[in-house]
Amino acid sequence: MVKKVKVALVYDFDGTLSTTNMQDYGLIQLFKMRPKTFWRQANQWWVDNYADQITSSMYYFVKMSNQKKVPLSREVFADCAKNIEYYAGVENWFDRINHYGDMLDLDIEHYIISSGYEEIIEGSSIRKYFKEVFGCAYAYDDKGHPIWPARVVNYSTKTQYLSKINKGLGKLEDRAVNEFMPDEDRPIPFSRMIYLGDGDTDIPSMRLVKKSGGKSIAVYRPKSHKHKTKAIKLLTDGRVDFALPADYSEDSQIDTAVKTILVKLATERDLQVLQEKENKKKLPRDKK
After folding, report:
1. Is residue 253 part of a domain?
2. Do residues 57 and 153 lie in contact, with contact meaning Cβ atoms separated by under 8 Å?
């Protein structure tokens, strides 16, 4: 029986699996604000203070919580996830791809690396499918209210979490990321990773996976010429392998591409097994 090998499917969340920012589905509305207004103000605070954009938005949610007297908590964040709208096919995608992997003797693991909030993703209908979620997260006071960014995921730190997946490290094992580990000891080589993302924060990760022998897919909002053009530019610039509409339904372009990649990985595994058997037949050089 062929030994199963692990394959990692790694996803951004906002704009990749969900149709827009996860905070726009209910969190911002708690402040009696429209998402467009909130993000305009939060981004202006970021510019005015020469701050990091992701950290600034996390601060601004706490600021609005205090200003509007709307307490936030892990439970409130998680509850906002019930309104998330996913692209077509997302909610049955994982079972279908896992089943396809089983038929190929591949052990599929799904991961999220997102600049969105872990607390919201924890309440989502698809959380159960992910082996691990790496996202922004808050620290909380003794009353359970968020007070400070405990973890921030941006352009560069996304690649750090890819390395953790590659080495089989836990979320908090930061020091071990830079320690040497022989390639043969790494649970999931980059060559057996498929990265799916849509935004600028995904570009370093897309490049890393593609450069290291894996496959990167830039997804775009179906019927959006602007988003399609942006994704195709990533393809043209050699940063991704595919630029495809964000439709995860059976027989969609993403479905076909991912399944084809999985077949390739299974075939490469089978060829390696055959080659190892042949190598055992070789005579020592002095007995030829």
Report:
1. yes
2. no
- Which residues form the domain of 162? 5-19+88-281
What total of structural domains would you count in the chain?
1
Residue 37, domain member (yes or no) = no
Q: Is residue 35 part of a domain?
A: no
Q: 153, 115 in Cβ contact below 8 A? A: yes
Strand 130-140 to 146-151 pairing: antiparallel
For 162-183, what is each residue's pLDDT tens digit? 999 999 988 877 777 777 777 7
The residues, any chain, with a CB within 8 Å of residue 23's CB and separated by 6 or more, are: 35, 61, 80, 116, 117, 120
CATH number for the domain spanning 99: value is 3.40.50.1000
Query: Across the chain, how many H-helices and E-strands are there?
Result: 9, 7
- Residue 276 CB-half CA count within 13 A: 7
Task: Give, to the nearest 10 degrees, the angle between helix 155-167 and helix 203-211.
Answer: 40
**Within-domain flag for 61:** no
C-alpha to C-alpha distance for 226 and 230, rounded to whole angstroms: 6
- Total-model pTM: 0.94
